[in-house]
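SAMPLE LOG
Freezer: B-3
Tube label: C17
Construct: single chain, 289 aa
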Amino acid sequence: MTDRALSVVRAGALTTVQDRGRPGHAHLGVPRSGALDAPAAALVNRLVGNPPGAAVLETTLNGCALRPRSTVTAAVAGAPCPVAVDGRPVPWGAPVRVPAGALLEVGAAVSGVRSYVAVSGGIAVEPVLGSRSTDLLSGLGPPPLTDGSVLPLGRARGVPGRVDVAPQPAPPAELVLRVTPGPRDDWFTPRAVRTFTSRPYRVSAASNRIGLRMEGPALERAVPGELPSEGMVLGAVQVPPDGRPVVFLADHPTTGGYPVIAVVRAADLPAAAQAAPGTPVRFVAVRRR
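STRUCTURE (predicted):
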């Protein structure tokens, strides 16, 4: 039995293995997947000396608890949360030494939604199509963590960062999403298009890694009937029959039959990953480049 492993003592509400995902496979019907807050995942890897593409853990709302079989360096970032080793508080957003057999506890998010946990050497589950990411829609990659599961670790090769606390953006009090209109904005009434970019929405509790669902005014269609299924991209704002927009995130389907009124700029999506239910949302139209 290898000593380069993590035992999962408490899996939390939803903790998954994530890396940079599987871009380039949409033509095969495979979503991109990967960490929703990519900058936070990259940061924790830097803090423990891992390469940028190493696999980390993405927690949801209430964290997790882990026990390494050998001494490791760990770091937690993303949604701010308490972190402890054997009950002793340790810094969030900084590298921490975790002795073999000690309990690393990642607590509930104080704000935001998703915290990221990196361990020196990275999570070394078997890759699928070049990625170790869990994809909740297709089922590719390792399943979400469960209590008692064991995760293999790679060999630590880099040097941990030397920082007290790494600066990072706070979860949004208001989520502002810049959108490029189209390609199917003409399927909506002019009033609906104005409503989309002038009225406030809120993040729905039904949101997940597939999409950020909105609560707010419904958008009226100008074109009735069905739209033939067509390709979907990361950040597409699809409008299902209830008229409430859905922003597609990393585990989104690669095709869809509901019209896309706009596409969110990629730079705004990490903040969307940290928008808790009830967070106000504004869509701001920007010109096509």
